Amino acid sequence: MSLSEGWQFRWGDSPVSADGSPAWAQGKDPAGWQAINFPSNPPGRDGKRHAWFKTTLPSGGSWRDPVLYIYSVNLLLEAYLEGQRHYRFGEFGADGQGRFAGWPWHMIELPPDFAGQPMYFRVYSDYTDIGLWGEIKIMERAELFGYVLRHSAIDLGISMICLLLALLTGVFTTIQPGKRHQLAPIALFSLASGSMILAETQASQLLIDAPLMWNYLAAGGYFLLPVALGLLVEQWYRDTRLRLIRRIWQLHLAYWVIALGAASLGWVSLAITYPIFDGLLLISMVLMAVIILPRLKTLDVEQKAILATHAVFSLLLIADMAVAHGLLPWARVPISAGALVFSFVIVAISLFEYKRTQQEFKALNLRLEQEVAQRTEELQTLIQRLEVFSYTDPLTGLYNRRHFTDILEKASAQAIRHQSPLTLVMIDIDHFKRINDQYGHEAGDCALVNIASQLKQHFREADVICRLGGEEFAILLYHTEAGGVQQRTDELLDILSKTLHVHQGTTMGPITISCGIASYPQHVDDPQALLGLADQALYSAKLAGRARSHVYA
């Protein structure tokens, strides 16, 4: 669920109430808010470093473990819900300011009943941009992890290729000193691009939750890219162009040392080194074009291929800069694709030029393919595990509502195609709130687990048992009609009436359930309608006194 509408903002920082909490987060002084399409870079900044944003969380859907996902924030953030601080990223000082802490993605836990609640965001930034950035969505926690991995899988694979290429090319540089000046720029470019891509992929935050470390790694790789290109291109010239190209990459190397050193020592914010470098890089690109284009015809096919792939990579970098500085709408720019093409073109040219080392490079390609296959397989396995997790209720081990929705659609199509009966049972634990109130929520969870276990023991392995949420369950039975199912549920009711449930030494007594049954084609022509009919039968069972099963009539 995307939060792309209904935002408001106001400049400045909130006054503090008597209890120490921000007054704006409590809905005080409502007149100062202004509408904004997206909570980023409001008009009229004029050097301001504090801004507040708010939105009303939308309704719709059934949520089990909802979280608010934010792609990134410029720069520090506090989120308030129900007047209390709910999330914080970075350290705010007494004056409301703080130091840059990185550009990670954010996962803010939400209560299941968040619908209609106002949520406030306090932001501080001494950067060129201020506010939330990229995507803002409400998702299930497990769904978010799968979402991050799916969007990171390709970049992770490409970064591994680049880093492996850097390692192997570096080895060849050491064992073949005569070719060092040709191989070293390839190794440096692969190392820089691989490090940058790995650090900027969202999955890196799942590996090590250290945003600032990853931003330093990304900056280090990003700032070294023009150095690697300059070292590669300067080999093509032996006139004044050589000196000009060398001055360009030496300037970038000096910036790499000064910018990262000053940021590490706390003299400047790492964030502010990016826009400075972006401007320097654009100037360098123009100068390189002025130097190379007049003599383009004198270059051979391999050199032109390198320049062509570099031009594509440069355009992707420029597009990413434009997105980062708000000149283009937000989108994921596939910089990794440019790095991959550039790296492979360089490898191909190197293989062509150094025929005496063809066997070594063939072994390198084989290792690259094996590593890519292994990494891809590992990533696919991880994604599959997360997919399984996203279809499973963590408390009971049963399938969850998401899986139920999918399987009902497939089972309905199969039942219609084969004209076979399909029966749905809706189950609700009787007086479950009373269990929670009397014995506590842990006892309620224990009861849910016990009931789930009884369901798995009582029904067939082919029957699909799901927990829809709260104390509500659903069972989908193939090739079974309502009469046989009611007999089975009545047997289960009898078993449950004689079963005592014990939690931490406390006996809770028998826990009963109510069941509603509906069957295709006995009760309906469309199996998709079984859910509503079974729910009506369940309601009828509850009205009749609970602890019983009713077939839809």
From TrEMBL:
Span of domain GGDEF: 420-553
EC class: transferase
PROSITE patterns: GGDEF (PS50887)
Cofactor(s) this protein requires: Mg(2+)
Catalytic activity of the protein: 2 GTP = 3',3'-c-di-GMP + 2 diphosphate
UniProt cross-references to SMART domains, sorted A to Z: GGDEF
Transmembrane segments: 156-175, 187-208, 214-233, 253-270, 276-293, 305-327, 333-352
SUPFAM superfamilies named among the record's database cross-references: Nucleotide cyclase (SSF55073)
Keywords per UniProt: Coiled coil, Membrane, Transmembrane, Transmembrane helix
Coiled coil: 354-385
Native source species: Halomonas halmophila
EC annotation from Swiss-Prot or TrEMBL: 2.7.7.65
Entry keyword Transmembrane: yes
The protein, known as: diguanylate cyclase
CDD domains: GGDEF
